[in-house]
Amino acid sequence: MSPVLPYKISVLVFIENRAGELLLMLRAKQPNLGVWSPIGGKLEMATGESPFQCAVRETAEETGHHVREEDMHLFAMIAEKAYQGQTHWLMFLFRCKAPLDRLPADISEGSFKFFSRARINELPIPETDKAALWPIYDRYRERFVSLRADCTVSPIKITVEQITTGPDSAG
Model confidence over 37-59: pLDDT tens digits? Predict the structure, then answer.
């Protein structure tokens, strides 16, 4: 039986610099305190904010990088059951197509650094990011995939619900 937990909706935004390195934040707050993750945040549900609007807002708030909804490519939707035993999450993953020219200043949520994709695997990152998030980014960032992650079991059980095909869909 699934635990009765709050359900939250969030976005994660994957932003690169012109060298192809990815921007990560060393989180200064929970969730994910003390580990590296992409930028993002929760939807402002009281205002009816869409995931695209949230991705644009969070990008501007956290990095100062002002982009448009057209600059965002939604590449994944993940339903996480009982993340850290505390919350169910519905996450929308975006790849920002507008490169970031500079490292953002530190904010209350954390500090920033650019990393090569290979280097990210060596960083302290959340278990779900290692098991699902980065492999999803690697495989589907040009397409779209819908998944669910059962965090009540270890290792986390990932189920692919749907994949859109595209020009790079050989895998």
Answer: 999 999 999 999 999 999 999 99
Residue with tokens 């939250």: 8
29 Rama sector, left if φ>0, alpha if ψ -120 to 50, beta otherwise? beta
Structure tokens at 138: 């690697």
φ/ψ region of 54 (left if φ > 0, alpha if ψ in -120 to 50, else beta) reads: alpha
- The beta-strand segments (E) located in 43-151 are 72-83, 87-96, 110-115, 145-150
- The C-alpha atoms of residue 140 and residue 62 are separated, in whole angstroms, by 25
- Whether pTM > 0.85 for this model: the answer is yes
Domains along the chain with CATH numbers: 7-163 (3.90.79.10)
What are the CA-CA distances from residue 12 to residues 4, 15, 34, 50, 168 (Å)? 24, 10, 17, 13, 23
Distances (CA, A) of 25 to 103, 104, 117: 11, 10, 14
